[in-house]
Each structure stands twice: as C-alpha cells, then as structure tokens.
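The material for today's practical consists of a large collection of protein records. There is nothing in a record beyond a sequence line and a structure line. As an example, a complete record with its sequence and its structure tokens follows:
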Amino acid sequence: MKQSVTRVFYISLVIALLFIIWGVLPESLLPNGNLNNVTENIQGILVSNFGWFYLLSATAFLIFAIFLVVSKYGNIVLGKDGDQPEYNYITWFGMLFSAGMGIGLVFWGAAEPLSHYNSPPFSVGDDDEAARVAMRYSFFHWGLHPWGIYAILALALAYFQFRKDAPGLISSTLTPLFGERMNGGYGTIVNVIAVFATIFGVATSLGLGAQQISSGLGFVSDNLENTITQQLIIIGIVTVLFMLSALTGLNRGIKYLSTTNIILMFVILLFLLFAGPTNFIMNFFTTSLGSYIQNLPSMSFRTTPFSAEDTDWLEGWTIFYWAWWIAWAPFVGMFIARVSRGRTVREFVIGVLLVPTVFGALWFSVFGGSAISLEYHQNMDVYSVIGEIGEEGALFTVLESYPFSLITTLLAILLISTFFITSADSATFVLGMQTTGGSLNPQLRVKMAWGIVQSATASVLLWQGGLGALQTASIIAAFPFVFILLMIIFSLVKAFKEEARNYPLKRRKRDEL
C-alpha cells in the first residue's frame, strides 16, 4: 500500500507542476498549443457532445441519495455500532458550508439571479416571469443536485473508512466491485483522477475568491483597482494565511474558521434582509421555493435540441455547474466524510441535502432578490454596471445601494477571505489524505506542497483567461470523475446488501451475549 501511495503523490505532483509550467509559457512559444486554447477546445467538445451525460448523471446521484433516505439502509451507522457524532449540528453544518460552496454563494448570490433576470434560460413573457424563472434556476443550480453529488461520495467514504476500517481513499469505495485490484494500478489511476478533480475544482473557487476580494477593495478605495496583478497578490497573501491555518490542524484552524464564516454569513444576510425590501424578499423566497420543488423534475432533464441560443445558456450555466460540483466532489466528499463519523445514513443524507439547500435558497432570495428589486422597483440599471466591472462586483454594487455600505463591504471582504482560507486549508488536508494512503493526519510537508500547487494553479488559470478559464478547467477535470462516481453507486449498493444480510446475524449474537 505504501508503494501505491508514493506513486499517487509523485505522479499527481509531477503532472500538476507540468500543467503549471505549461500555463506560464508565453503564447509565442506555443501559438496553437497554449493552455487556454487547448482547454477551450476540449471544453467545447465535452459540453457540446456530453451535456446530456452531465445532466443525467447529476440527477441519478440525487435520486439515489433520496432512495437511501427511505430505504432499509438508512439505519446503518457511519462508524461502529454505538459511535456518536464528533461534532454538534451547528459546527457540522458550518463545516459543510465552509467546505461545500461558501465562496461560490458569496460570489454568485446577487450576480446569478440578476443575470438570469436579464438573460433568461428561455423565452419568457414579461419581467414578472423573468424574475420567477431567474430565482428558480438559481435555487436549482445551488440546491439538491450539488448536495446529492456530495452526499453520495461522502457517504461512501465515511462508510468504508469508519465502518469497514478501509483507508480514506476514493479507490477504497470501489473495493466491493474490483477487490484487491484497487490496491494496485487501478487504485492509483482512480486516486490520481480524484486529485486532479480536487485541484481544478478548488482552484476555480480560489480564483473566484481572489477576483471578488480584489473587486471589493476597489469599492473601498479608488486606489485599489481590480487588476490581475492585484488578484495574484491576494492569492499570495491568502496562501500564507491558509498555510498558517493548516499548521493548527482540523480541530482548531478549520473548526474555528468555519464557525466564523457562519457568523459573518448570518450577520450580512440578516442585515440585508431587514435593510432591503423584507416583505418582497420573503414572498420571493416562498414562491420560488415552491416553484423550484414543482419544476424540479423538468429542470433536471431539460436539454435544448431545437434552440442554439438556449443551448449556449444551458452549457454556460447548468452544464458548467454540474461539472463544477462533480469536480468538487472528491474534496467536499472527503471533508464531509471526515467530520460525519457516527451519524446514520438517513441522518447524514437528510442533513447534507436539506439544510444547505434551504439556506442557499434563502441566501439567493436575499441577495438576488435585493438586486432584482433595485431594477424592478427602483429602475436602477444594476446589470449594466455589473457588465462593466464583472460578476465579482455584483455583491458590492448591491451593498452600495443600502445603508452602511462601507461596513457591509468590509464585512463581505472579510467573509470571502475566511471562506478562501477555509476552502484552501480544507483542500490541503483532503489532498494530503488522498496522497498519503488516507491518513487522517497527513504530513505537514505534503499539505504545504499541495497548498502551493493549488494557489499556483488558480493563479495560472486567472492569468490565462480569468473566469472563463476557471470554468473550463472544472468541466474538463469533472468528466473522468463522473464515471468513478457512477461506479461508487453500484459499489455502495453491493456493500449495503451485504450489510443487510449480515445484520440480523450480528444482532442475534449480541443478544446471546
């Protein structure tokens, strides 16, 4: 096993460094083969020919997660019988959110609903319908589907690691299907793919965070212009901070930062809820939640074979999101598994699916609802302003329209920074686990190496093409990992069936004792 771990670490590290070197080579040396051109071409092939595959796969993961809640397997403990959860619900939910999609929520909370409102996914009748559709699709992209993807992988990792005493590796979740071959070359391939999905998924979020922090600083001071240089400096500073956090370990650094994130999120959320159009926001939230639930099946399977314009929207938003969540799955899944020992399958899946989905819906209703209200009720052309400064400025443009904008802007920058640190810190821990045989306490030098690789990857992608390059990398990295996730479903079913067959025998033996 030790030899396999060494291969995973060094193979992944060498390929990652080669990618970074490729990214910094000037275009004059590779006129047709520079990083941005090649990845854009690959992304175009994937989204054009396999968009339907991303849609079907993401929906399959959600359906399977819901099945587990109502099935007889729901009582299985993610650990030994009698194990109790290590963290209380508040801390657990905080960790889920901090690792799961914190930076993305802050980045897109106002920008996405406003974008859909002005450029709907399909033809709508009037502004009222455009607003309803905009919020419904924001719920859709950040709701049950992403958390269904996370839940499946996290559940498999927690089950095999804590109940079956298997190493905390992605390859271990496929042992019921492939047996000992997962300890050799097959396992190495699976774990290397998981490492790269993690690197690119997290790099996308780190890039978004750097862009938004830089934009926020521009709102605080005219002397701090949102440039690529400033964004790279921010990545450098935050790299030092999250490495310091990594020194303190999971139970100190990440735990305390996660709690800080939740407090800051609620402070900003509640402020804007009551400073903004409160009644409009809550009505918008209520009707959008119902519309989301009602239209969930049709949205889950929606493709656009007869409209090129609608296809562009679908590929730019839904397909990108499904790929991004899949790319994030190794990172988030491994982290959620690490903090979920002792919970039952049913408790775990319900918690992972429902709580973040409802909170995310409220978040989009407050920030997206406030942004749409500025255009709908006050005739402010917020969308044009965002078009000039970029999506990263949407949050600050909205905050600027309400009281105490300087304070809330500074709090928002602080929130993004703590999310940035938490995500990067968590990712170094997860990458360390994946490349040290599933160790729950990976060596510090390993975590430091992956921390540098993450930041360098995010920097290269930003320098090469900004937001578009970040999205492209996620879609490409996610494609091979989809197949691994699909195999994990069959592996879990096989393991749970074996568990169900053996459980009555185990219970009788305990009764005899």
